[in-house]
Specification:
By secondary structure, this protein is mainly α. Among the domains are: about 100 residues, no CATH class; about 80 residues. The protein is about 50% helix and about 0% strand. The protein contains 8 helices and no strands. Helix 2 runs antiparallel to helix 3, helix 4 runs antiparallel to helix 5 and helix 5 packs antiparallel against helix 6.
Length: about 350
């Protein structure tokens, strides 16, 4: 939908849109005017009756007609002002979208600059836009994620910088990007779903209470990351590195951790219902008091892992790699032995 230039200028030169207070004042004024007119008509009719120019029955009919017309007038005025309010707000929303689109384009241009100072400025511009605009927030988070992934290649030895100072500048900018994306994920991502953060490296960062519902975190590096109380439900963390990550009391239901490295990870009191741990490394991980109902541990390495107080069955752990260092209740160990005997006999 396009608004013509003349109308855009009119919207810009007015207050952009009527506030709720303005709308209330307009409707109140319309009602007051109708009341005044009604009183004047009533007095006029009484005067006519008094001088004998109008009988009582005709007077009642005229008065009822005036009352009905007054109600219609008030209702019509309210509807017209309401429709006008909606139309002006829609135009203002279009202008706002155009403004944010221009700001977003400028910020992305700055982000791609060869100057690290300009690049850092672009990151802060994106941060401000993400905070102010819910509509653009998801896209901005993914843009910053792509920037981190692309520029992390330099740290891994690919495309090495020619000078130490330039490499340090790049690393500083990448660290700034990581701080910004963690802030957005912790505080402003409630309405973001299925974020594409594939391959991102946020090692050692703070993502406590972050919302990563349905996020694509395949091949992500989240080792030593604080993910306590985070929402990772339905997230895809296949082949992700979560070594020593803190996911205490996190929400991980229906997440995919297949082939992921979760060695020494902290998963105490987490919700891990219907999670896929197939071929995952959970060695020395702590899953105490977690809800592991229907979690799949096929070929998972749980040697040295702790399951004290966890809600898990022997059937779930039958296909996992277990040894004497796996901390299981004696009841589950006995059930595992029985299941293994049955399998051998079959």
């Amino acid at each position: 939908m396009r608004i013509n230039r003349k109308y855009r200028m009119w919207v810009k030169n007015t207050s952009s849109f009527l506030s709720q207070k303005d709308l209330f004042m307009v409707i109140s004024a319309s009602i007051l005017l109708c009341i005044i007119i009604g009183i004047l008509v009533f007095l006029l009719l009484r005067l006519i009756v008094f001088v004998g120019g109008l009988n009582e029955s005709t007077y009642d009919i005229v008065l009822s007609t005036v009352a009905v017309l007054g109600v219609i007038t008030i209702g019509g005025a309210a509807v017209i002002q309401y429709r006008k309010q909606l139309f002006i707000e829609a135009a203002a929303e279009l202008d706002r979208d155009a403004k944010y689109s221009a700001l977003l384009s400028t910020a992305i241009e700055h982000l791609g600059s060869e100057s690290f100072a300009v690049c850092r400025g672009g990151l802060y511009e994106l941060k401000r836009l993400a905070i102010d605009s819910k509509k653009d927030r998801e896209s901005i988070i993914e843009i910053i994620s792509s920037f981190i992934v692309e520029n992390s290649r330099f740290r891994s030895g690919i495309d090495r910088e020619t000078t130490t100072s330039r490499r340090e500048e790049r690393e500083s900018v990448v660290d700034t990007a990581k701080e910004i994306i963690c802030l957005l994920l912790r505080c402003y991502s409630d309405n973001c779903e299925h974020l594409n953060l594939c391959g991102i490296s946020l090692q050692g960062m703070d993502l406590e209470r972050a919302c990563l519902w349905g996020a694509n975190l395949v091949n992500a590096n989240l080792s030593d990351t604080n993910l306590s109380h985070a929402n990772l439900m339905n997230a895809d963390l296949e082949n992700a590195d979560l070594e020593c990550a803190n996911m205490e009391k996190a929400f991980l239901d229906n997440a995919d951790f297949s082939y992921a490295n979760l060695s020494n990870a902290q998963l105490t009191d987490a919700s891990i219902v219907c999670v896929d741990f197939e071929d995952a490394d959970l060695s020395s991980a702590c899953l105490e008091y977690s809800d592991l109902e229907e979690a799949d541990f096929t070929n998972a390495d749980i040697r040295g892992a702790g399951f004290a107080g966890a809600k898990v069955t022997a059937e779930q752990l039958l296909g996992a790699r277990i040894d004497d260092t796996t901390l299981l209740s004696q009841e589950i160990r006995n059930e595992l032995d029985e299941l293994k005997k049955v399998r051998i006999n079959i």
